Amino acid sequence: MSFSDLGLSQKVVDAVSAAGYTQPTPIQAQAIPHVLARKDVLGIAQTGTGKTAAFTLPMLSILEQGRARARMPRTLILEPTRELAAQVEEAFIKYAPNHKLNVALLIGGVSFADQDAKITRGADVLIATPGRLLDHFERGKLLLTGIEILVIDEADRMLDMGFIPDIERIAGLCPFTRQTLFFTATMPPEIQRVTEQFLSSPVKIEVARPSSTAATITQKLVATHGKDYEKRETLRQLIQTAVSDSDGNPLKNGIIFCNRKTEVATLFRSLQRHGFSVGALHGDMDQRSRMAALDAFRKNELTLLVASDVAARGLDIPDVSHVFNYDIPHHAEDYVHRIGRTGRAGRLGTAYTLVARGDEKYLQAIEKLITKTIEWEAGDMSSLPERAPGEADEAPRRGRGGERDRKREKPRGGREGREHVRTAREQKIIDAAAASDANGEDATPVERAPRAERAPRPDRAPRAERADRPERGERPERAARPEPAPRREAPPRRDDRRRNRDDDGPTPKGFGDFMPGFLMQGAAIKKD
């Protein structure tokens, strides 16, 4: 089957051929005819299968008829991150050289004025993140009553980042007669509920089992110690081994995923000090720095990219040879998306995951999700080094943007909180009491070792006697203090009601003792 058999317009078919594509992927072959038939579509496919072209190509054919109006876009595509939104804009630019369409990109980190100018001219295609879209709408710069097609891409990522309330509001602002396209890689129960709310009799297209991994990816586990400096040493050795791998898939470039933004910055500086060509990408970076890091990695100017989960969803970097999970993801779905950055478009890929003591439950959840047992590079779970005493499990905490943070637990009050701060002397007393109880004797406290005797002080010379110093026990007579001057009493205030109540007579009314002069004048009497 070719693209010309799917019902696309000739302009779109020519653009796809010029881009070098000859055959559609399974998700494209099944979704495009239903989109052209103006039906709601629910597409479930693993990452890297061409979901973006599955909705951009039929949208271009539909948009050939009609014209956009000022501040009223015709189609709306919602993406969870700025990078994904910019990537979809690049897809429209690549597939629409024969179309005269206006494409507007509304993302954070960019001037409002520039985005508002594009909306004012009229946008056929509006690509946006939910937050920036609602900002423009609340400012009165955008109307959604002309939306013909609404696309919600990477819906499971929208759920992770807390965008579902915003999506519900945006869908309520769009016309009821719109066409809705819903694409996701995983299908948790919350997404199932949202699809029932947004879609009307959708066509469900499932080209792969949800949460499955591509067969072209070789997955390996690597045992390591939980301490940071030892994990970094294990990672550096693993990278050097992958570079010299001549039998399998040698390292061309790779993405290293961490759970926290602080770990991204620390690992980036460590690899940079050891001479690796490396860049960093996480949610706290400004938009210009994020796009510069991605462009340098795409152009092979950087060999390694240390990133948080902001780079785990939907980024189309087709020729990534390796993925390294420096931290095992706390949510099994993230593992599917992370390793999906490699092995794309039928290419070979390799994914390594560093596993330490305490990560067993996360590894079990991942293997249960993908229904596959991941092989160990060397050893197995029993070969994992023991954790240091007092090293506790770190529980994940989900924050906005989809990034995971850990919170250090403080000891609470009570017995549990006191035991781990017990001093050596207290432990010694407890051990002695336990031994005496075992022998049937009363517990006795441990005696403290006697202090070393203090050396006597050398004799000091007597202080020089001062003639003006009085003898001990005698106090000089003090001069009598002068009598304080009498305090002047403040005049009574007229507005002090309490003092008015203490007056002898009533409060005068009218003019009081003052008589105006005009009342003293006599009145002229007219005589008849």
Structure notes:
The chain is of the alpha/beta class and 528 residues long. It has 2 domains: 3-206, Rossmann fold (3-Layer(aba) Sandwich), CATH 3.40.50.300; 217-387, 3-Layer(aba) Sandwich (Rossmann fold), CATH 3.40.50.300. 33% of the residues lie in helices and 13% in strands. The protein contains 17 helices and 16 strands. The longest helix has 16 residues, at 228-243. The termini are far apart.
Quick overview of this protein structure:
With 528 residues, the chain is α/β, with parallel strands linked by helices. The chain has helices at 10-18, 26-36, 51-62, 82-95, 112-121, 130-138, 155-160, 164-173, 189-198, 228-243, 261-273, 287-298, 332-339, 360-370, 415-419, 424-438, 497-501, and strands at residues 41-44, 75-78, 103-106, 125-128, 149-152, 179-184, 203-206, 217-223, 254-257, 278-281, 304-307, 322-325, 349-355, 375-376, 396-398, 404-406.
Q: How many structural domains?
A: 2
Give the % helix: 25-40%
Radius of gyration, rounded?
A: 39 Å
Q: Supply the number of helical segments.
A: 17
Uncertain regions: pLDDT < 50 for 5+ in a row?
A: 392-421, 441-447, 496-504
CATH hierarchy: architecture of the largest domain? 3-Layer(aba) Sandwich
CATH topology of the largest domain: Rossmann fold
Strand count, sense and closure of the main sheet?
7 strands, parallel
The total of beta strands comes to: 16
Global mean pLDDT: 79
SS content category: alpha/beta
